[in-house]
Design brief:
The protein has 190 residues and is an alpha/beta fold. It contains eight helices and six strands. Helix 1 runs parallel beside helix 6. The model has no long low-confidence stretch (mean pLDDT 92).
């Protein structure tokens, strides 16, 4: 199998690192060679966080270059737009419609762009956008956006739900397991 590339992008504190660990665990359990690389940026200050997940028969580098991502999984709309140049021509974006104001917007130096989903689609990108925050809150916690996104991503992988659930069980602390299983199902079924 040729190497596939997934970028998980968001803002610090949204759970992108747990999502990348979950995805990496799932793919390793399927017998793939997996490389995960984290690029934090100013994550503790609300800055951009990017994680690369590469998998296939043999993966030699953890880094994804522009135009190579098969998937971009985004926790926030502006981050989906920011990393769009990394998406392959036939790639898929799975994004939350949540909007988190970056510092230039907070300080009044800029405005948050309007109609981002439509603007991203206008580039020719395939976009699967849903309100992951509302679904996470329905599951029981706003912090479960990451697992809602993994549930949505599961549509594109052809891996049985029970294998995703086993990866969740292996990755998520036991006291949050039922919440995260609900979040996964809500994202999958949205």
């Amino acid at each position: 199998m040729e190497t596939k590339n997934v970028m998980i992008v968001g803002v610090g504190g949204q759970g992108s690192l747990l999502a990348s660990k979950l995805l990496g665990r799932l793919l390793m359990d399927q017998g793939y060679d997996v490389k995960v690389s984290e690029v934090h940026g100013m994550s503790q200050r609300g800055g951009s966080v990017v994680t690369y997940v590469r998998y296939g028969d043999r993966v030699y580098s953890p880094v994804i270059d522009k135009g190579e991502a098969d998937f971009i999984v985004s926790f926030e709309l502006l981050e989906a737009a920011r990393w769009l140049p990394y998406l392959k021509r036939d790639g898929q974006i799975v994004t939350s419609t949540q909007q988190i104001d970056p510092m230039p917007v907070i300080t009044g130096a800029a405005e948050y762009p309007e109609d981002l989903v439509e603007k991203i689609r206008a580039t020719g990108a395939r976009v699967d956008a849903l309100d992951c925050l509302a679904l996470a809150e329905k599951a029981g916690s706003s912090k479960a956006v990451n697992i809602v996104l993994m549930g949505r991503l599961s549509h594109y992988f052809g891996i049985d739900d029970d294998k995703w659930l086993r990866a969740i069980e292996a990755t998520v602390p036991a006291k949050f397991l039922e919440l995260n299983k609900r979040a996964f199902a809500l994202g999958r079924d949205a």
